[in-house]
Design a protein that fits this description.
The complex is a heterodimer of chains A (about 325) and B (about 260).
Chain A (H helix, E strand, L loop, with lengths): L1 H26 L27 H30 L3 H26 L4 H24 L2 H5 L8 H26 L23 H30 L4 H26 L4 H25 L26
Chain B lengths: L2 H19 L25 E10 L14 H7 L20 E6 L13 E6 L2 E3 L2 E5 L4 E5 L5 E5 L7 E5 L5 E4 L5 E7 L7 E7 L4 E3 L5 E7 L2 E9 L3 E9 L4 E9 L2
Parallel strand pairs in B: 1-16, 3-6, 5-11
Antiparallel strand pairs in B: 1-13, 2-12, 2-14, 3-4, 6-9, 7-8, 7-10, 10-11, 14-15
The chains are: A mainly alpha (about 325), B mainly beta (about 260).
C-alpha cells in the first residue's frame, strides 16, 4: 500500500504538471497551434517529430503528450487500486478519476476542433481541477495517517461547514477565473488594486464584469481561507495535520493573491499567468485535503487486503 | 373511446408529427429572390478616386519580433523582423490602409473574379499584410517557409477556419461568403504573424502602398461613402461625389498621439 500511496502522489504531481502545461497553452495563446485532433498536423500523436515542436506547437503538443502520459498513469492507478485496495468506494473513486481523465481529453479535443468555444474550454479547465482533486484525495486515502486513524474525530460542525464553504468558494473562483481567461478578459481592468482609478469600475461590459467578479472572488476566497485556517489554528492547534494545512492554505492564498495582482500589472506575463493557475489548483487541492480530514469520521474504511499499515480494530476510521 | 374517435386522434397526431418532423424539404420551396445580374460599368463615363493616406504625429517605433521560438523563422526572416503596425514614409505617408467604397453602389452587382487572391507565408510573415477580396473569390494561402504554419481566420460574419500547413509549398484554397471588413488571420504557431483581409461584394477597394497612395478606378458616377481602415488607428469615412469621367482626389489623415 505504501507503494500505491507513493504512486498516487506521483500521479497527482503529474496532474498538477498537466494543469500547468495547460495554463501555459492559454497563457501563450497556443490553443489552436495544432489545428487537428487527435492527430498532430496529420501525424499520429506520438510520432510527431520533436524537431517540429516549435512556437505554439511546443506548448499545445507538449500539453497533449503530458495529458496522454497522465491518462496512462491513471489507467495504471485504477488497475492497481482494483487489485490492492479493499475499499470498494476507493476503487470506485479511482475508476471515476480515470473516466474523468478520458472525458477531459475528449473535451480538450472537442474544444480545439470547434475553435475554443468558451463553455467547452471552461469545462475543460474546471474538469482539470476536479481530476487533480480526485488524485490528491486518492493520495490521502492511501496515506498511513488516513489508515491508522489514531487521531480523534473532529467534532466541530462549524469547521465542517467552513471547510465545505471554502471548497465551494475556491472552486467557483477557479471557474470564474477560467471564464475570464477564455474570454480574453484578463486585462479588461488594466490597473490594480483600483479599477480604472475607482473602487468599482465606472463603466461596465461583459469582460469588465467577469474580471471584476474574479477580483471580488479573490477577496471572498481570502476571507474564507482566513476564517477556516484561523478557526483551525485557534480551536485545533493541537492537531498537527490540520495546523500544517492551515498554514499551507494561508501561504498559498497569499502567493495566489500576489500572483493575481502581478498578472495584471505585468500585462499577463506568461510565467506569472501560468503560475497563477497552478497555484489556484494547489490552493483548491489543499482546501479539499483539509475538508476530507475534517470530515474523516464520515468515511467508512474496510480493512485493506494487502497493507503493512496497522489498522484500528474498528472499521470506521475515527468514527467511533 | 370509440373507433371513430381513435382514428380521429391518430390522424391529428400524424398530422402534428408530419408538420413537426417533416422538415422544410417537402414544402414547396419559396422562390428565392434572384441576385441582380452583374451590371457592366460604362467605361465611357466611369470616374476614379485616387488619393493618399497620411499619418500625423510620431508613431511608436517598430519593435523587433523575437522569432527564436522557431529557428527556421529566425533564418528565413533575416533582417525582416520589425513589426508592421505602422509603415510610415519619410513624408508621413501611411501604408497598409484598406480603402474601399462603403456605400453608394446601390443594388449593382459585380462579377466574381476568376483569378485567386494569393496570401503567402514567407519568412514567417504574411504577404501581403493587408489586402482585399470579393465574396466568392478564391483565396489561395501558400506556405513558402520550410516550417509549419497554421492559418487561422477569426471572422465575425463568415465561417471561422483553422488549417495546418506543415510542409513547404502547400496551398489551401478557401473563399468567403459574406461581406466583412476586416477578417483577421493569425498563425497560432508563430504568435507575431497576422494579416487582415477586407471582404466586399464589389471590386472598389485598394490598399495604400509606398507613398500612401491608393486608387479606386472605373467607378460609376455617383455619391459614395469611402472608408479607410487601419489596424491600429481604426476607420475614417468621407463622402465623395464622382462625376462622369472625373478623377476625384481624396486624402485621409490619421493622427497618432
Amino acid at each position: 500500500m505504501a507503494s500505491l500511496h507513493r504512486f498516487t502522489i506521483f500521479v497527482a504531481t503529474a496532474t498538477l504538471l498537466l494543469i500547468t502545461a495547460g495554463a501555459l497553452v492559454t497563457s501563450t495563446d497556443s490553443g489552436l497551434a495544432v489545428p487537428d485532433w487527435p492527430n498532430t498536423y496529420g501525424h499520429f500523436m506520438f510520432s510527431f517529430p520533436l524537431s517540429k515542436m516549435v512556437g505554439g506547437i511546443l506548448y499545445e503538443h507538449g500539453h497533449r503528450l503530458i495529458a496522454s502520459a497522465v491518462g496512462i498513469l491513471m489507467i495504471g492507478l485504477a488497475v492497481w487500486f482494483s487489485r490492492v485496495d479493499g475499499r470498494r468506494w476507493v476503487r470506485y473513486l479511482a475508476w471515476v478519476a480515470l473516466g474523468a481523465v478520458i472525458l477531459q481529453g475528449t473535451v480538450g479535443g472537442v474544444t480545439v476542433l470547434y475553435f475554443l468555444p468558451t463553455p467547452i474550454s471552461v469545462a475543460h479547465a474546471g474538469l482539470a481541477q476536479l481530476v487533480f482533486c480526485l488524485t490528491v484525495a486518492l493520495a490521502l486515502f492511501t496515506s498511513p495517517s488516513w489508515h491508522t486513524g489514531t487521531a480523534a474525530p473532529i467534532a466541530d460542525r462549524m469547521l465542517g461547514r467552513l471547510t465545505i464553504g471554502t471548497v465551494a468558494v475556491v472552486y467557483v473562483q477557479v471557474l470564474v477565473g477560467a471564464i475570464m481567461r477564455h474570454t480574453g478578459a484578463g486585462l479588461a481592468i488594466p490597473d490594480f488594486p483600483l479599477a480604472f482609478g475607482h473602487l468599482v469600475p465606472p463603466e461596465w461590459s461583459w469582460p469588465i464584469a467577469i474580471h471584476f467578479g474574479h477580483r471580488v472572488g479573490a477577496v471572498l476566497v481570502t476571507l474564507a481561507v482566513i476564517a477556516t485556517a484561523g478557526h483551525v489554528l485557534v480551536h485545533h492547534r493541537h492537531r498537527l495535520e490540520l495546523r500544517r494545512l492551515a498554514w499551507l492554505l494561508i501561504g498559498l492564498v497569499t502567493v495566489q493573491f500576489t500572483l493575481g495582482a502581478l498578472t495584471v500589472l505585468s500585462e499577463r506575463q506568461v510565467g506569472i499567468n501560468t503560475a497563477h493557475v497552478a497555484t489556484g489548483a494547489a490552493l483548491l487541492a489543499t482546501v479539499v485535503l483539509l475538508t476530507l480530514l475534517v470530515h474523516r469520521h464520515r468515511f467508512t474504511d474496510v480493512p485493506l487486503s494487502n497493507t503493512s499499515v496497522a489498522l484500528p480494530e474498528t472499521s470506521a476510521v475515527g468514527g467511533s | 373511446m370509440d373507433v371513430r374517435k381513435s382514428w380521429l386522434l391518430v390522424s391529428i397526431m400524424a398530422l402534428v408529427l408530419t408538420v413537426a418532423c417533416g422538415g422544410g424539404s417537402e414544402a414547396p420551396a419559396e422562390s428565392e429572390p434572384e441576385a441582380p445580374a452583374a451590371t457592366a460599368v460604362d467605361s465611357a463615363t466611369a470616374g476614379n478616386i485616387t488619393g493618399t493616406v497620411i499619418l500625423e504625429g510620431t508613431p511608436p517605433e517598430a519593435e523587433t519580433i523575437r522569432m527564436n521560438a522557431d529557428p527556421v523563422c529566425t533564418q528565413e526572416a533575416g533582417d525582416n523582423t520589425s513589426t508592421e503596425y505602422y509603415i510610415v514614409g519619410d513624408d508621413g505617408s501611411l501604408s497598409n490602409v484598406f480603402v474601399y467604397v462603403k456605400e453608394g453602389l446601390g443594388n449593382r452587382s459585380f462579377p466574381t473574379p476568376s483569378e485567386p487572391v494569393m496570401l503567402d507565408q514567407n519568412g514567417c510573415r504574411y504577404t501581403p499584410h493587408v489586402f482585399g477580396i470579393q465574396v466568392g473569390q478564391t483565396l489561395t494561402v501558400s506556405n513558402g517557409d520550410p516550417t509549419l504554419h497554421n492559418i487561422h481566420a477569426t471572422p465575425a460574419n463568415n465561417a471561422e477556419f483553422n488549417t495546418g500547413q506543415p510542409i513547404e509549398g502547400m496551398t489551401y484554397d478557401t473563399e468567403f461568403e459574406s461581406v466583412e471588413v476586416m477578417v483577421p488571420f493569425k498563425c497560432d504557431v508563430h504568435g507575431w504573424m497576422n494579416a487582415y483581409v477586407g471582404v466586399l461584394d464589389h471590386p472598389y477597394f485598394g490598399v495604400s502602398g509606398n507613398g500612401g497612395a491608393f486608387a479606386l478606378n472605373t467607378l460609376p458616377p455617383g455619391d459614395y461613402t469611402i472608408e479607410a481602415w487601419h489596424e491600429m488607428l481604426g476607420t475614417q469615412t468621407q463622402n465623395v461625389t464622382v462625376g462622369e469621367n472625373e478623377t476625384v482626389e481624396v486624402s485621409f489623415t490619421f493622427t497618432v498621439n
